[in-house]
Write a structure and sequence with these properties.
Number of strands: 17
CATH class of the largest domain: Alpha Beta
Shape: globular
Distance between the termini: 57 Å
CATH topology of the largest domain: TIM Barrel
Helix content: 25-40%
Number of helices: 12
Largest sheet: 9 strands, mixed
CATH superfamily of the largest domain: Alanine racemase
């Protein structure tokens, strides 16, 4: 059972979306849409891209967004049109999508091992106009890479304890690796730190240590071409930390969630920053199991539950409290006021938008209250397990079918 303080905090998190008007998101023809449906608002995406670039002093070259959030080639193209040319990816499908779009530079922000290494190298060769890099967290991993078409960033563990080498080992490792032509910089992702006052202070201490490391490497004759830090919660503190740009290092930040802005990210950025929810899930009430509760069709196979419960906020209805979802059902407790009927539609702001977008094959595009298109979620899921080993996906399927037929 949650204690009262935790419930109150969750309530505050959900209420943050209620400053946005439901009328700005409703659209004609919604009743003719098969729900649950992912709805993306390109004008709001553009506003979020603009707000981020403004926070970066108007310089889109300082942004290396992680496209695990965007997922749609349509949205990646929006970022490129705004001048963003450098990106991060976590899967070879995301990497491939960016290469097909003509991105200038993509960092695979994930340890590439086994066949994944070969696939990354294949894509780097196939798309020579895109500079491709990946992460290494040991000297052995870096020096074991023989393909010069791909560069690498040394991944530092800032205390998140997910990937990266311990900070204490980085100086000696980069002293060995820094002179290698494939060395492209340092990667420092502090995703465990939140964007409140205490979190920013902790993040700033980490950036100070990172800047000192760059200074020590400079004293040893090793220059760091690029430093990549920060997701959505801490990128503001990182941008303001000028020592990270000493000795000619390019410092880029990598917030990705800001393109759509979910409940969590809205609690991490200043209310005056100009960010707005840009990706919602349209849901339909399918049952009314009690006088003060309804069930809609947006279970955790639609709105991700990885960030906890509640999984979303119901836009325009602060009195609605989403409960624990099942696979295809989300029960909502109605705490007074209007209680929707079966067939009514609800606009849900996900608590964590990245895996929510990945739950859908296609997204509706809505502008000025009207549907203007449907776009495929281009980088949803992963490439075929045999991508690159048997040709392109269609050829793979045909060859596999022939093999099965025999």
């Amino acid at each position: 059972m949650r204690d009262q303080s935790e419930k109150a905090e969750l309530g505050r998190d959900l209420s943050i979306v209620q400053r946005f008007e439901l009328a700005e998101y409703e659209f004609e023809g919604a009743k003719d849409i098969l729900t649950p449906a992912l709805v993306i608002y390109p004008d709001f995406v553009a506003a979020n891209i603009s707000a981020t670039i403004q926070r970066l002093g108007g310089d889109p070259d300082r942004w290396r967004p992680h496209v695990k959030t965007a997922k749609l080639a349509f949205v990646m193209r929006q970022m490129m049109t705004s001048g963003v040319r450098n990106f991060k990816a976590a899967t070879t499908l995301e990497l491939r999508t960016l290469c097909e779009l003509g991105a200038s530079d993509v960092l695979m922000a994930y340890p590439a091992t086994g066949y994944c290494r070969k696939r990354v190298a294949q894509l780097a060769v196939q798309y020579p106009n895109t500079r491709v890099s990946f992460l290494v967290d040991s000297v052995e991993s870096a020096l074991g890479w023989k393909d010069n078409a791909v560069g690498w960033f040394v991944d530092i563990n800032p205390g998140m304890n997910r990937t990266g080498m311990p900070e204490r080992d980085v100086l000696e490792a980069v002293t060995i690796l820094g002179g290698h032509k494939s060395f492209r910089g340092l990667h420092y992702y502090d995703g465990h730190i939140h964007g409140d006052g205490l979190g920013e202070a902790e993040a700033t201490k980490g950036y100070a240590r990172l800047a000192e490391l760059i200074h020590l490497l400079h004293d040893r004759g090793i220059e760091v071409p690029e430093v990549v830090t920060s997701g959505t919660p801490t990128f503001g503190a990182a941008v303001d930390h000028s020592p990270l740009r000493t000795f000619g290092s390019i410092h880029r930040v990598s917030p990705g969630t800001v393109v759509y802005c979910d409940v969590n990210s809205l609690t991490e950025v200043p209310a005056t920053s100009g960010y707005v929810p840009a990706a919602l899930v349209l849901s339909t009430v399918v049952s009314k199991p009690g006088d003060d509760m309804v069930t809609c069709d947006a279970g955790h196979k639609s709105v991700s539950a990885d960030a906890g419960v509640p999984t979303c906020a119901v836009l325009g209805h602060p009195e609605f409290e989403p409960q624990t979802p099942s696979e295809e059902h989300l029960t909502i407790k109605v705490k007074g006021g209007f209680c929707p009927s079966v067939g009514d539609q609800l606009y849900l702001v996900p608590r964590h938008v990245c895996p929510t977008v990945n739950n859908f094959d296609e997204a509706l595009l809505v502008r000025n209250g009207a549907i203007v298109g449907i776009e495929r979620v281009s980088a949803r899921g992963r490439e075929s397990p045999r991508a690159g080993s048997m040709g392109e996906p269609f050829e793979q399927r045909e060859q596999m079918n022939q093999h099965v037929a025999k």
